[in-house]
Amino acid sequence: MSRERHVSPMLNKVPEVTLVFWIIKILSTTVGETGADYLAVHVGLGANWTAACMASLLSAALILQLRARRYVPWVYWLTVVLVSIVGTEITDLLTDKLEISLYVSTALFACALAATFAIWFAIERTLSISSIITTRSELFYWAAILFTFALGTAAGDLATEAFGLGFQLGVIVFGVLIGFVAVFYRLGTEPVLSFWLAYILTRPLGASLGDLLSQSPNYGGLGLGTVHTSLAFLTVIVALVVWVTFEGERTETANPAQ
After folding, report:
1. Which of 71, 97, 171, 191 is 20 to 30 A from 14, comparing alpha carbons?
2. Which among 63, 54, 56 has a CA at the least distance from the CA of 32?
């Protein structure tokens, strides 16, 4: 018997890009915004402790994700939610603690993301998420994800605060930009480019949506609070992940040869 049978190659480690994928992604970014604010302000952990605790949880989730040999919905989306919170905290620490301008942090994260993409492409020759089948490509993927969240947070705050768009207009502007990306994708724009542009833009969209729902009306929000907003969105995320998990298991049962 050939020894090659003992080798267990990775299957693709990320989900198929569907409507459900984008819904969970936007909800995750919103939870990242409201969850970080809740822990830092209402629980009283402060930005430093929140960042440290969430970074520890993210490290544990990443270990689970990297050790998996295939896409496991709850592990993957738990990691995304934690990356969202950590990305938010990184930007908030730079802005609030180190008093670095949002213009500078936005440019810094844009350069970091561009460098990640450049190195990733130089080594792997592709940025497609359908090729996340090695630990190395997955590490590049998660580095890019972290920088998209940090960049999206900084760019979103820059647009809504420094540029004065406000939360409502911020949701509209970023929603329209994502709509343009979808249209250009339909017209034949390179799929990988379209994916990453949409992925980056969903972060400020989710952040603006989270602020719109949670912040006080005095600041242009609807006043639902970070607790209710976070719990509502987390509930929907859990429900969708459970549905995706059972749907995947049913598909595997129906197609055991795949």
Report:
1. 171
2. 54
Cα distance between residue 154 and residue 98, in whole Å: 14
User: For position 253, what pLDDT does the model report?
Assistant: 61
Q: Mean pLDDT by 10-residue block, N- to C-terminus, for the chain (258 residues)?
A: 44 86 90 78 77 90 92 94 88 86 93 96 92 90 93 86 85 94 92 93 86 83 84 92 84 57
Read off the DSSP letter of residue 223. -
φ, ψ (nearest 5 deg) of residue 188: 110, 10
What is the C-alpha to C-alpha distance for residues 100 and 113, in angstroms, rounded to an integer? 18
> And the tokens for 169?
């207009």
Amino acid identity of residue 63, one-letter, is I
Please state the pTM of the whole predicted model: 0.87
In angstroms, rounded to a whole number, what is the distance separating the alpha carbons of residues 240 and 234?
10
Using alpha carbons only, give the angle 64, 69, 73 rounded to the nearest 5 degrees.
Answer: 60
For the stretch 98-156, pLDDT in tens is 889 999 999 999 999 999 999 999 999 999 988 888 899 999 999 999 999 888 888 88
* C-beta atoms surrounding 117 within 10 Å: 17
- Residue tagged 């379209």 (tokens): 194
Please report which residue ranges of the chain form alpha helices under DSSP H: 19-37, 46-67, 73-92, 102-124, 135-157, 166-186, 191-214, 226-254
Encoded tokens for 241: 């992940």
Contact predicate 142/116, CB 8 Å? no
Residue 242 φ/ψ region, left for φ over 0, alpha for ψ in the -120 to 50 degree band, beta for the rest:
alpha
The Cα-based distances of 6 to 3, 81, 135, 245 in angstroms read 6, 34, 18, 27
Q: Residue 4: how many CB atoms within 10 A of its CB?
A: 6
